[in-house]
Design goal:
By secondary structure, the protein is of the alpha+beta class. It folds into 2 domains: 38 residues, no CATH class; 87 residues, Immunoglobulin-like (Sandwich), CATH 2.60.40. It is 19% helix and 37% strand. The chain contains 3 helices and 7 strands. The protein has a 4-stranded antiparallel β-sheet, with no helix packed on it. Strands 1-2-5 form a 3-stranded antiparallel β-sheet. A hairpin with a 2-residue loop joins β1 and β2.
Length: 134
């Protein structure tokens, strides 16, 4: 039996009546206005690595999942006091890799951390990678 949206609402209200529950006035309208649950957003699947090189701290980000649905923000921090060094917007395609270096003059022997902040879901703050270069 096929149900349209309206008949499915009527069936729910009718079923409640058959089971001994008296539907409250306006129940059909409330059910019709209920939001349908949606699938959770795709979580970010990335690998972030760091290494010290002659050009400074080098970070490599690899997207291990599908293309990001929206832009995110890549933030660089001094990891010892969580102060922001810089940030940029970023949107990775599926399996895209991004490599960047932090100059030795910027790091100056302090620990540098990278955190990716997606805009499509709330993600707890924890460095994705951290390194200290001389």
């Amino acid at each position: 039996m096929k149900y349209s949206c309206k008949s499915a609402v009527s069936a729910v209200v009718f079923s409640a009546g058959v089971l001994g529950f008296a539907p409250t006035p306006g129940a059909a309208e409330l059910i019709a206005q209920a939001q349908i649950a949606t699938a959770p957003p795709a979580l970010m699947r990335v690998d972030v690595s760091s290494v010290c090189a002659t050009k400074g701290a080098v970070f490599k980000i690899t997207n291990r999942g599908a293309q990001w649905p929206r832009t995110g923000v890549l933030r660089l921090y001094y990891a010892d006091d969580n102060s922001v060094i810089g940030q940029r917007r970023l949107r990775l395609a599926d399996h895209q890799r991004v490599t960047f270096a932090v100059k030795p003059s910027v790091g100056a022997g302090r620990p540098i951390g990278v955190w990716l902040d997606p805009s499509w879901y709330k993600r707890g703050f924890k460095f994705d990678a951290e390194t200290t270069c001389p």
